[in-house]
Amino acid sequence: MNLSFFDQFASPQLLGIPLILLSMLFPALLLPSPTNRWVTNRLSTLQSWFLQLITKQLMIPLNKMGHKWALILSSLMTFLLLINLLGLLPYTFTPTTQLSMNMALAFPLWLATLLTGLRNQPSISLGHLLPEGTPTILIPALILIETTSLLIRPLALGVRLTANLTAGHLLIQLISTATMALLPIMPTISILTAFILLLLTILELAVAMIQAYVFVLLLSLYLQENI
Amino acid sequence: MDVKLGELPMWLATCNFTPKSLLGGVQKAWNSYCNKYINVKRGGTAGISMLLAGYCVLSYGWNYQHIKRNCWRKYH
């Protein structure tokens, strides 16, 4: 059996229950539901502050119709952020490394923005296919290019998230394997590699947060065009 | 709920094991954990850290069948 570095991305099973199910449900435990108290605990206060911050950031460019999307966009952001960050803990499984899950998130949401635009304001939505001020001779080519770019958006959204997280996890595994392998042979090089691993972990923390934000930001941009 | 260790089998015999009461037990345990470590005036990182540590331990247990063969693998 040829095992490879990609084994960490296979969802392991225990008694028939895959770990991916637990990994997707666990973030719900970390988010307390708000109570009727005036002064809540620190976790609830932190959560409310964070939700308010991201909702404000996402909803400012949108018009009143777009504010109906506040719940799904902010919950998607929180979900992706928590899943990405929890995946950096040892032995945990990151569901967002699976292309199936990211496409399942990206494709319906993108399609919803597209269909909203085509239903409510069809000529404006189709007008986005041709940028202003293009020379007349380039119009057919540009419409084809813009249509391709429109249709490739869900693929780009899903693959961007998958590739970033998968690449990060693979790099961490490779460099940590190198560190452990070098430890008995050349301790100095091993310490240098461990330092690189530290920097990489900090990068992965940043990437986990940024990728979640970029996913939701792009969706809100697509929504802005169509609503 | 203060059950002494010696009385544990007797206590286990008294409680009913229907799914509803098991779910109620889980709910009570979760609420008591939250009230002890999270719903306090000056809670720190301990509450969440214990949850995350428990999650890591649970993930290790879930992966154990794969991890126990790591020593013998040629390619990791």
Describe this structure in words.
The complex is a heterodimer of chains A (227) and B (76). Chain A is built from eight helices and two strands, in the order ββαααααααα. Chain A is mainly α. Chain A has one domain (42-226). Chain A has a two-stranded antiparallel sheet. The relative contact order of chain A is 0.14. Chain B is mainly alpha-helical. Chain B folds into two domains: 1-39, no CATH class; 43-71. Chain B has helices spanning 8-14, 19-37, 46-62, 64-67. The longest helix of chain B is centred in the middle third of the chain and has 19 residues, at 19-37. Chain B is extended, with a radius of gyration of 19 Å. The termini of chain B are far apart. At the A-B interface, α1 of A face α3 and α4 of B. Chain B: It comes from Apteryx owenii (Little spotted kiwi). Chain B: One of its GO terms (molecular function) is proton-transporting ATP synthase activity, rotational mechanism.
Which two chains form the greatest contact, residue counts included?
Answer: A-B, 25 and 26 residues
Structural class category of chain B: mainly alpha
Shape descriptor of chain B: extended
Which range best describes the helical content of chain A: under 10%, 10-25%, 25-40%, 40-55%, 55-70% or over 70%?
Answer: 55-70%
What is the multimeric organization of the chains shown? heterodimer
Total beta strands of chain B: 0
- Low-pLDDT runs of chain B: none
What is the number of domains of chain B?
2
Calculate Rg of chain A over CA atoms.
22 Å
SSE topology string of chain A: EEHHHHHHHH
The biggest sheet of chain A, with number of strands, parallel, antiparallel or mixed sense and barrel status, is: 2 strands, antiparallel
Order of helices and strands of chain B: HHHH
Strand portion of chain B, in percent? under 5%
Shape by Cα distribution of chain A = globular
* Low-confidence regions of chain A: none
SS-based structural class of chain A?
mainly alpha
Helix content of chain B: 55-70%
Biggest sheet strand order of chain A reads: 1-2
User: What is the radius of gyration of chain B computed over CA atoms, rounded to a whole number of angstroms?
Assistant: 19 Å
Strand content of chain A: under 5%
